[in-house]
């Protein structure tokens, strides 16, 4: 079996699931260009744990509506994909073997960082899905190593997805959301960060990406907290040493949320 690529997807606001945006249109076509996975592992920005890595282990995970004040249709949506308890145990083993403190977590459903992009990309919900947590107290290098511990899964037919946001300044986004401005001019501080990150992902420059907080222009303005970028580092790490990024999609939501997506091979 050929090794699967890994992906970073910007999931955006929860209403990406029902919105008429470029990012939503891209996600609807994503699966057509990929091998069919036997399972999907998602590192979601909305599954945060400090210290110990969590791996969801339920056979039939629930759909979590972890947001408020969005389109009422979203609260009726479900993503009934099965879990994969056996795969969850395999992931815990791989992480432990690499020196991570990891455990299987029961009773933790699919957050919107998982079900929103998967609902669009894999609407049949017939592929097993497992989630792995990110740690908001740890840096990019830690998450690259976390991804690297999972790299064997690519050869086992597992599609590793990091689901976050290429930029994520929520106060700036909410200003536009309140005004109903979904399409807006991209500020220079967003464009410069996106260009820097994208160029280094395409080049596979892991050293710079691990140090993005210091090196990238406007890093802290685009990510006041960086949990939404850590799934990208998990996906890059899982692709294996020497992997480079392919820029699959680029668009903006509310002017300041960069909805870019990458594949790593």
Automatic annotation (TrEMBL):
InterPro entries: Extradiol_dOase_DODA, Xdiol_dOase_suB
Domain Extradiol ring-cleavage dioxygenase class III enzyme subunit B residue range list: 31-253
Cofactor requirement: Zn(2+)
Family, similarity comment: Belongs to the DODA-type extradiol aromatic ring-opening dioxygenase family.
One Pfam family recorded for the sequence: LigB
CDD domains, per database record: 45_DOPA_Dioxygenase
GO molecular function, one term: zinc ion binding
Name under which the protein is recorded: Possible catalytic LigB subunit of aromatic ring-opening dioxygenase
Keywords: Dioxygenase, Metal-binding, Oxidoreductase, Zinc
């Amino acid at each position: 079996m050929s090794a699967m690529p890994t992906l970073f997807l910007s999931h955006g606001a929860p209403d990406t699931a029902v919105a008429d945006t470029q990012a939503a249109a891209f996600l609807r076509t994503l699966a057509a260009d990929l091998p069919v996975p036997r399972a999907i592992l998602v590192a979601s920005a909305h599954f945060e744990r400090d210290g110990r890595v969590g791996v969801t282990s339920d056979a039939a995970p629930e759909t979590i509506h972890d947001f408020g004040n969005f389109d009422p249709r979203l609260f009726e949506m479900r993503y009934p994909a099965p879990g994969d308890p056996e795969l969850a145990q395999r992931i815990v083993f791989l992480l432990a073997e690499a020196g991570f403190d990891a455990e299987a977590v029961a009773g933790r459903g699919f957050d919107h960082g998982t079900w929103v992009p998967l609902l669009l990309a894999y609407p049949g919900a017939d592929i097993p899905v497992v989630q792995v947590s990110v740690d908001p107290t740890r840096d990019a290098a830690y998450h690259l190593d976390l991804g690297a511990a999972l790299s064997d899964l690519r050869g086992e037919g597992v599609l590793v997805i990091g689901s976050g946001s290429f930029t994520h300044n929520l106060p700036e986004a909410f200003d536009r959301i309140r005004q109903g401005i979904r399409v807006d001019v991209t500020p220079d501080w967003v464009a410069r960060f996106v260009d820097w990150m994208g160029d280094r992902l395409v080049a596979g420059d892991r050293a710079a990406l691990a140090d993005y907080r210091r090196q990238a222009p406007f890093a802290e303005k685009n990510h006041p907290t960086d949990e939404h970028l850590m799934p990208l580092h998990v996906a890059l790490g899982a692709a294996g040493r020497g992997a480079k990024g392919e820029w699959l999609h680029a668009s903006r939501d509310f002017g300041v949320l960069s909805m870019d997506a990458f594949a790593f091979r």
